[in-house]
Design brief:
By secondary structure, this protein is an alpha/beta fold. The chain is about 45% helix and about 15% strand.
């Protein structure tokens, strides 16, 4: 079993009246609430937390990309990955990911990811999310009607740019380049592992991953029932191809809190979950869809999912701590309790990679580090043996001699 540490890098200082004065946490939230000086301090604190996760034994560090929102101050995962590449030496650096359809030309993304792979000594995982309408259509103005076609074309261009040893011309519908010949090339050949994150039911994403042998990343934020449906759908696509499912081709993300006891976990961490739910998770429905965003197939699947949700409606209020635990959207408690919860989750979903979300909303630094340490010391050892009879083909393959995190140079006396 592999364990990865995710950071969303939220803004933790929203006023109590934020939701009364802003219709959304995305796209058009009041930017005057952001303080750049405090933002700089937070970036360093958040990166320190990720570096600490490597120190205590996590296998990977995860960054992602969102735009114009209050809960994810990371418009460029490549910038954060570069900072981590210089300050870490062992953990995989997993970008979930780079919104490749927004890059014009896409060779820029190919170059940056290759550069990071070289800088990190071959520790990069390239995540290629389709993206959300909020990020891509409303914040960046991309045309939703042909966005999926652009995504696939850019995907194909990036893959060829990484692998083709010769200079080539590219004549696509959205990109035309006379000379493609990227420098540098990635250390990992033929290319870094590719992971595809998805939220909800999408048979198109299942097929895309199954056809290409990519890792499928499922989000458990909606609860274990929704995650189960998504992962079962993906594994059915793998089995339909006559391939025995390998758990390491699947990853699941889960919000995790570890304390000495179950009661302590709730007492110390619940207020931060309430902040996150109140300020950063409920969103304006007008941003969730853009005309032409979904294919006909996607519309049918979304309609079916909506009918299932209407049959089992969630309360309009913020869910309680116990309701989160019951739904499986949170793993929290003592090390023994969390071990039991997560073992059930990953076995049910047959997921070989667990992505832990250890920080939410306005959670303090000390609480984040404490939960991270307890998980590393008392939960990881209890779950590490899972899937040991399978080989992981979806983690990075770093070079034997690590080039990153070089010793500090003594510059004293340099003129």
């Amino acid at each position: 079993m592999k364990f990865h540490w995710f950071h969303g890098m939220p803004w933790p200082h929203l006023p109590a009246e934020f939701r009364d004065r802003n219709r959304s946490v995305w796209v058009d939230a009041d930017a005057s609430l952001y303080d750049p000086v405090e933002g700089g301090r937070l970036y360093h604190e958040y990166l320190d937390q990720m570096e600490y996760a490597e120190q205590v034994g996590f296998d990977g560090l995860i960054v992602n990309e969102h735009h114009q929102n209050v809960f994810g101050l990371m418009p460029s995962p490549q910038l954060m990955a570069a900072a981590l590449a210089r300050r870490t030496s062992r953990a995989a650096i997993i970008m979930l990911g780079t919104s490749i359809a927004l890059y014009r030309p896409a060779t820029r993304a190919a170059e940056e990811i290759a550069m990071l792979d070289v800088l990190s000594g071959g520790r990069i995982v390239a995540g290629f999310p389709l993206g959300t309408p909020m990020d891509t259509n409303f914040a960046y103005g991309a045309n939703p009607a042909d966005f999926r076609r652009v995504y696939r074309e850019h995907h194909d261009l990036i893959l060829r740019a990484w692998q083709d040893p010769d200079v080539f011309a590219w004549h696509g519908e959205s990109t035309r380049l006379r000379y493609v010949n990227i420098w540098p090339r990635p250390i990992q050949q033929p290319h870094p592992p590719i992971w595809i994150p998805a939220d909800g039911i999408s048979s198109e994403t299942w097929d895309f991953c199954a056809e290409r042998g990519y890792n499928y990343v499922c989000l458990a934020s909606r609860g274990i029932a929704a995650a189960q449906a998504a992962m079962d759908g993906f594994w059915s696509r793998i089995e339909a191809r006559g391939v025995e499912p390998n758990p390491y081709q699947g990853a699941v993300s889960q919000t995790i809190v570890v304390a000495e006891t179950d009661d302590e976990a709730q007492q110390r961490y619940e207020p931060h979950f309430e902040y996150s739910s109140r300020h950063t998770q409920d969103d304006f429905p007008g941003w969730s869809e853009a005309p032409g965003w979904r294919t006909e197939r996607g519309i049918r699947e979304r309609a079916a999912q909506t009918m299932r949700e209407l049959a089992n409606p969630h309360p309009a209020r913020i869910p309680t701590w116990q309701e989160r635990l019951d739904a499986g959207s949170l793993a929290a408690g003592s090390p023994e309790t969390v071990t039991e919860q997560l073992e059930h989750l990953v076995k049910s979903l047959r997921a070989g990679h667990l992505i832990g979300v250890f920080h939410l909303g306005d959670m303090t630094d000390d609480l984040t580090l404490r939960s991270t340490r307890l998980f590393a010391e008392q939960v990881i050892p209890r779950l590490r043996h899972l899937w040991e009879d399978h080989e992981d083909h979806w983690s990075p393959r770093p070079i034997a001699t690590q080039q990153s995190r070089a010793p500090r140079r003594d510059l004293a006396g340099v003129n």
